[in-house]
Amino acid sequence: MLMKSYPILSAVVLGLALSFGGFVHAQDTDADPAEGGTTIAFGDRKQDTDAPIDVTSERLAVDENANTALFTGDVVVIQDTMTLYAPWVKVFYKEDQSGISHLKAKDGVTLIQNEEAAEGETAEYDLEEEIIVMNGDVLVTQKLSAIASDKMTVRLDDGTALMTGRVKSLLRTNTNSKKGGE
Questions:
Q1: Helix (H, G, I), strand (E, B) or coil at 19
Q2: Residue 15 phi/psi, 5° resolution?
Q3: Is 8 helix (H, G, I), strand (E, B) or coil?
Q4: Tell me: the pLDDT tens digits for 22-81?
Q5: Residues 154-181 pLDDT 10s
Q6: C-alpha to C-alpha distances, 26 to 30, 54, 164, 165, nearest whole angstrom
Q7: What's the rounded Cα separation, in Å, for the pair 2 and 16?
Q8: Torsion over CA of 50, 107, 56 and 112, rounded to 10 degrees?
Q9: Which end of the chain is more exposed for a tag (fewer CB within 10 A), N or C?
């Protein structure tokens, strides 16, 4: 399977790799056994899903009849300690327009929460359920390690993510010993 290159994430991954050491934090899973997968920590705490959402983009198109707003061109979505980057983000408002129901992002999405980053083809953020689902060659970097899968479901209420589909991990150890007896 060929992984796409994401320049923003590449810079973040390089910065994280140079700054931090560690491993992918696997956790016990209480996920649906039928779905399978691997549960990992994502972010170091519960995300505040009630915090304001700041969206910046090159263009904005509002469709009042459909209760949507379409942001295109270098879109940056920030909420609490989470930042999402994508070329295309659609915001769906609740029927009564009392708030945001969910967001959809596509065409190469990068999600950063604290020191961890994930990339994939698409993402959907359901504010009512407090979950983010990323699909399409998902790659998560945590310190010096990485885990890839077809799909990642992030539970913002407890800071965990379920990686499903074909899951592959690269685990590196952080040793302080010097080679050659130095």
A1: helix
A2: -60, -45
A3: helix
A4: 333 333 334 444 457 888 888 766 788 889 999 999 999 999 999 999 999 999 999 999
A5: 999 888 999 999 888 887 776 654 555 5
A6: 13, 31, 14, 16
A7: 23
A8: 50
A9: C
**pTM, full prediction:** 0.75
Query: Rounded CA gap, 161 and 40, in Å?
Result: 5
Buried b vs exposed e over 170-179: b needs ≥16 C-beta within 10 Å? eeeeeeeeee
Q: What single-letter amino acid sits at 137?
A: D
Q: From the options 2.40.50.90, 1.10.300.10, 2.30.40.10, 2.60.450.10, give the CATH code of 7-172.
A: 2.60.450.10
How far is Cα 107 from Cα 4, in angstroms, rounded to an integer? 11
Residue extents of the structural domains in the chain: 7-172
Tell me how far apart the alpha carbons of residues 151 and 123 are, in angstroms, rounded to a whole number: 10
What stretches of the chain adopt beta strand conformation (E)? 38-41, 54-56, 59-63, 68-79, 82-93, 100-106, 109-113, 116-120, 122-126, 131-142, 145-155, 160-164, 168-170
Contact 138, 155 (CB under 8 A): no
Q: Count of residues for the chain?
A: 182
- Report the distance separating Cα 107 and Cα 89, nearest Å: 9
Comparing CA positions, the residue from 82, 29, 35 lying closest to residue 55 is 82
